[in-house]
């Protein structure tokens, strides 16, 4: 089972011949078990260096090509009038075209004898799932890799679904796909404040064409920040939406006066707190003066109920004998 998992881990989901940057990114994102196995056989590549051959093949694909060539499973083609076995770059191109082919269609002749695309499978509709594009993880001191894109997708989405979705909907060609699942931790029932976590699947996708993630608003210079804000406002009308929402709220609440118990302004709340504090302090001062006079006269002090809070059934009278 372990050897089978390793065999599937060496599969390369790329669709076309890639540039040097994409090859280096593919090498850097190779699983750790595959890198350790290759380092035992070959020289470990340097940072930013690719382990691909001249035909843009990975060591696994190159070994697969040599095995099929030795077994006689590689077809022959005519090159410059000479019939010989298919070269490695042509075999890799054929494999890539097969892997990235569009399923469910075929080329056929119509009644006029012209070629047209016919749908041979069932129609597939767009799924109701969310592909969330996030920034790539970049270690400190290393440049951002534009030949990689990171998505957060549901757990049920497979690598084939990701490749087909990006190619069919957005026309994005992928070179490889790495996925890992993140599960939310089990909440602690004894904690008063429960923090919620979300489970998701992270998909790191290799790109044929580079893509630079937009900079954060706070990282931009003042001119570019102003230009970005104007573009966002022109296309999405953020400030205009806030203004319309505020006017609508004022129109709904027009003529409504909030009384003291239902006040929500800070000034009203502070006023209520000050009034209650003054009332409580006045009651305490009044009771203290009465007890002082009763002690001076030598009278017995009896406290039947607390005037500062509501009486309860468990409260009993407290009697204090004054000492002269």
Mean pLDDT over all positions: 79
Sheet/helix structural class: alpha+beta
Radius of gyration: 37 Å
Strand arrangement, major sheet: 5-6-8-7
> What is the approximate shape?
elongated
Helix content: 25-40%
Uncertain runs are 1-16, 313-324
In sequence order, what are the helices and strands, one letter per element? Answer: HHHHEEHEEEEHEEHHHEE
Strand content: 15-25%
The domain count comes to 4
Distance between the amino and carboxyl termini: 94 Å
Protein model, in words:
With 324 residues, the protein is an alpha+beta fold. It folds into four domains: 2-119, no CATH class; 132-185 and 198-217, Alpha-Beta Plaits (2-Layer Sandwich); 218-252; 263-310, no CATH class. The chain has nine helices and ten strands. The strands form four sheets. A four-stranded antiparallel beta sheet has the order 5-6-8-7. Strands 1-2 form a two-stranded antiparallel sheet. A hairpin with a 5-residue loop joins strand 3 and strand 4. It is elongated and about 130 Å long. 11% of the residues are buried. Residues 1-16 and 313-324 have low confidence and may be disordered.
